[in-house]
Amino acid sequence: MAVEGAVASRSGLRSALPLLAPAYLWLTVAIFLPLSAMVFFSFMTDLPLSGKPWAFTLGNYAAFFSQSLYLTLLLASLRLGLEVTLWCVVIGYPAAYVLAKVLKGRSREAIFLLVILPFWSNGLVRIFSWAMVLREGGILDTALNAVLPFKINIDLMYSYPAVIIGLVHSYVPYMVLTCYLTLQAIDDSLIEAGRSLGASRLQVLKRVIIPLSMPGLVAGAALIFVPVVGSFMEPRILGGRTGTFYGTVIEDQFVAVFNWPLGAALSFILLAVVLVILAIASPVLRRAA
Amino acid sequence: MRMPRLTALLTATAVFTTALTLAASAAEVHVLNWKGYGADEPWAVAAFEKATGNKVVNDFFNSEQEMLTKIRTNPGLYDVVMINAAFNDQAMAEKLIQPIDTSKLPNYADISKDKASSPMLDHDGKVYGVPWVWGLTALAINEKSFDKPPTSIAEMWDPAHKGRVVIRDDAVEAVQFGAIATGQNINDIKDMDAVKTKLTSLMPQIKTFWSSENDWNQMVASNQIDIGTYWSGSADRAKTHFKLPVSLVIPREGAVAWLDAFSIPVGSKNVEGAQAFINWMIDPKFYVEWVTKVGAPVSANTKAVEALPEDAFNRKVMGDPEVAKRIQFQAPITDAQREAYLALWQQLKVDVK
User: Fold this and answer.
1) Residue A191 belongs to domain spanning
2) Is the pLDDT of residue A47 over 50?
3) CATH number for position A228
């Protein structure tokens, strides 16, 4: 019985190999090799291609702990990641619910298209359009002042809220898509059963819909949280004076001072912290899912 | 149905690659420079190609570090590279650039003597960089916000401009600017604490950190800023080319000056074409056209500057001996210094969050 099972799984692997090979080859070449090179760099005093002598060191990792600067920024970035994720849930989940359970046919397709549309535009284009909207005398300011009877002054550009707005806009489709998939899979008869047994709409939401769609929420949150913590483009362009985050400091090490070893070390510290957070959260999330 | 399409795609890719390889073997001059900085002006490229038969292929960098990385990692690809004089030393020490035979450059004789003999470009009697243009990192103002232009750097700290001041997101520039504001030599900063204190008090004034000319011009166009650090050539371009209300101020405390030069990388496949291109770039005819059409920094070629109208900014203001006394040319800085400056700058940016 056991032998049979092993044979079956081995032949299953053999037939799966041609299908898996391209993806694994790609992952090896495009992700694993450069990433290992970066791990290697992060333990070096200088890059070999700068033509200077180099040696192995732990100094780049020690640099993180020697200055309060990096820890402060890392905490700021983690907070940014949490806030953006939270806003994506607040905005994305109801939208996903409406798409999955309320709208049907053509109107669903149309709304779906609107949700996906930001994905099809370049990230920089999106950010610069926000710059036009958010600044003083910009589209939002002018439009509100044209409608409202009193004068208000809206200048959100170069501030923390601007960074949040830009990032939420970029990442909310992930939340909508993952939640949509799990919400759509919920059998309508479960909701009807709950209602017919006397549960209020709120109770149905709390006891049936949210628990069943939890995997989508968790997947969406992880997809959003991780890249936002390391983001640098949005904070740099929209954040102005307040736009210094952990990601921008890493970018500076690579671009401004050509200190790849320190930049790589800072990146791996971020990776480790994110993995620890996901590991701590995973039992809770798994139970919820 | 699928397979022929795939084959066609592969064939197309192969043909495309071959075409690229073939194209690369023609007489090409690969130029590495900042984007929108003279060497890639379409009219200049077209005229050069017509006159010499060389084809110009432009490539760009966003920082000096990126430029060095590109020459390090692509040996033999570039024929001409534009290097800030303060980085020439490093490029030469790393054997990235080769000596230039200036006898092949007829216009070299007209380069002003102090620029041509700059110790940053000449090493052991060999020329590693041909001075092209120089300029200032000074202040520029939004004319709408001032009745008369300020004369002192202290204007940046004036509470009246709170939230309407910009400074470039560059550690070296920021620290050297702080050195000028505290009356120090930018190449030999003795009192770093004074610089830090001065910059710390500037941070709450700042709206944002700019990184490209476009950032600066956009903010002036939408009237979001009053004053900020800016490059002289860019201020000129903003005024002549984009018709923005921008004017340059060279504060009485001084300004940071830089010198840009052309070099030929080691392994260049078309040294002759490179020499022709550099000669073209320092030619008075090109320079006058560049200033008139686009706006440019000051040419290192004295004849080129003399070819400008008497009252041209680059001749009248930048050529003023009084200005020459105030400005300080950037000298090379070590990697250790650069990292220390960056650490200081990042700390300032975090403290203001």
Assistant:
1) 67-288
2) yes
3) 1.10.3720.10
